[in-house]
Amino acid sequence: MIKLPPPVNLNPFETIIKDHGAKSGEYLEFSTPLDDKGRYLHFDKLRFRIPEGLDHGLVWSVVKTARMRQLGETVNLGSPQKTCRLLLTPAIQMAISESDRHTTGAALEWLSSKIGEQKHMAYLLNDLIEDEAISSSQLEGAATTTKVAKDLLKRKRGPRTPDEKMIIGNFQMMQCAWRCREDNLSAELIAELHQVGVESIDDDRYHPGAFRVTNDVVVEDGDGNVVHTPPPADGLEGRLNALAEWINTNHSDVQNKNYIHPLVKAIVLHFAIGYEHPFHDGNGRVARSLFYWYLFKHDFAAFRFIAISTLLKSAPIQYGKSYIYTETDDMDLTYFVDYQSRIIIRAIAEFKSAYEKTIKNLEVFNKFLFQSGLYGKLNDKQKTVLQVAKSGQATAFTAINVKENLGCSYNTANSVLNGLVDLKLFQKKKNGREWVFTMLPAGQIISNWNP
Predict the structure, then answer these.
(1) I need a labelling partner for 409 at 20 to 30 A (CA). Which of 266, 278, 311, 440 fits?
(2) What is the pLDDT along the chain (451 residues), one digit of tens a residue?
(3) CA angle 40-42-45, nearest 5°?
(4) What is the residue range of 139's domain?
């Protein structure tokens, strides 16, 4: 269980001077919002770093005094209403910088132009776009492997289990978030995203698109302990509309004394939906899709291909604690925004790594194409599919998914794949009523062309 913060002494220095004068220097070392590693620690973590002999309550009060001088008001949530506050940590500022540099629509166009082969970049991005829907479902408990989920989405077969329905629903929710990026936020849009994402999974459990009207919804940890009791259902829709009004207000004007960067505001929206918990189930998925929706709205287009849930699911306990830390420390959003910012920094790095790997593989493979004489035998679409297979971005291909990714007809896609088989680069096997194509091992391809 999380150790809750002790009551704050509003005049800690007066108490220290009066009762702990000999150790005043040790207490003063804690008069900073962050520790020496730039971390914004909740009392649950800070208590283990307090030297023996110091009063934990006084240390916490010194830290809180330093923080309160820098915390700025953001949004009001709950009933009774609570004002959320935020301080920009180094991790938050770095996430803002990385997002500005690498995830805007302009940055995405630059990446696409640099790679040289637009169709290959499109294939790479179409593959990445599925990752958030899959990992978000797995974070919510979907017992489906990423490989099976990829196959489900690429082949567009009907879902066979509730877990597969969850995958499809999350994918449709993310598509809806992209389509609605020009819309303003409203309670109706929040309900629409929920309905699109959960309909037909288990309607008696989810109540698609319907806000909860009872107070029997709670959030439990893995041991069954209640860790969050949402605000009352009474007045919920009104609170969501008030949240929407705050979200729709322009805080990106540099002349606004309450300037908030869109990335930070998107994370706050993520938290707010999780905190209000407007639905019987599926709240986490809606919260994460709205995070993306807000970034899409503000032209951070590359987030369509950056999956934060892939990293969140690797440490779900820490994800949950970032909510609890905020709620148990006077609605200090810094804990949640800082944690999400660290996740975003890593997710952007992985996106860049996938891109850089693609560039490197493209250069190596193009060299092979020229030296082997294959280059002149391949058409543009075959080069694209072969390079995607070589880079490992996809391992199995069907005429349907090649048609979708390359934007061509089914017959053209089928011809592309069979042509690669004829050139002794691919092999094909029947899977049910469909042919599945895979690239031959590199050594076998070389042997085929250099007998």
Answers:
(1) 440
(2) 799 999 999 999 999 999 999 999 999 999 999 999 999 999 999 999 999 999 999 999 999 999 999 999 999 999 999 999 999 999 999 999 999 999 998 887 776 665 544 445 555 556 666 777 788 878 777 767 777 777 777 666 778 788 888 889 898 999 999 999 999 999 999 999 999 999 999 999 999 999 999 999 999 877 788 889 999 999 999 999 999 999 999 998 877 778 999 999 999 999 999 999 999 999 999 999 999 999 999 999 889 888 898 888 888 889 999 999 999 999 999 999 999 999 999 999 988 888 787 777 667 766 777 787 877 888 989 988 987 887 666 778 999 989 988 999 999 999 999 999 999 999 999 988 889 999 987 767 777 776 5
(3) 100
(4) 80-351
Contact (CB, 8 A) for 272 and 290: no
Strand partners, 77: 82
Tell me which residue of 385, 393, 362, 319 sits closest to 130, measured CA to CA: 393
- DSSP of 184-251: PP-HHHHHHHHHHHHTTT-HHHH-TT----SS---EE-TTS-EEE-PPPSTTHHHHHHHHHHHHHS--
- Global pTM reads 0.82
In a domain, 335, yes or no: yes
Q: d(Cα 4, Cα 81) in Å, to the nearest integer?
A: 21
Asked if residue 224 belongs to a domain, the reply is yes
Token readout for 68 is 């309160």
- Report which of 124, 120, 196, 126 is spatially closest to residue 154, judged by C-alpha positions: 126
SS3 label, residue 144: coil
Instruction: Supply the DSSP symbol for 47.
Output: G
Question: Are 48 and 160 in a shared domain?
Answer: no
Cβ atoms of residues 201 and 194 within 8 Å: no
- Which helix or strand (DSSP H or E) is residue 2 part of? none
- Whether residues 29 and 159 share a domain: the answer is no
Write the CB contacts of 170 (distance below 8 Å, at least 6 apart in sequence): 132, 133, 134, 136, 137, 197, 285, 289
CB 95 within 8 A of CB 263: yes
Spatial neighbors of 100 by CB under 8 A, at least 6 apart, are none
The CATH number of the domain holding residue 437 is 1.10.10.10
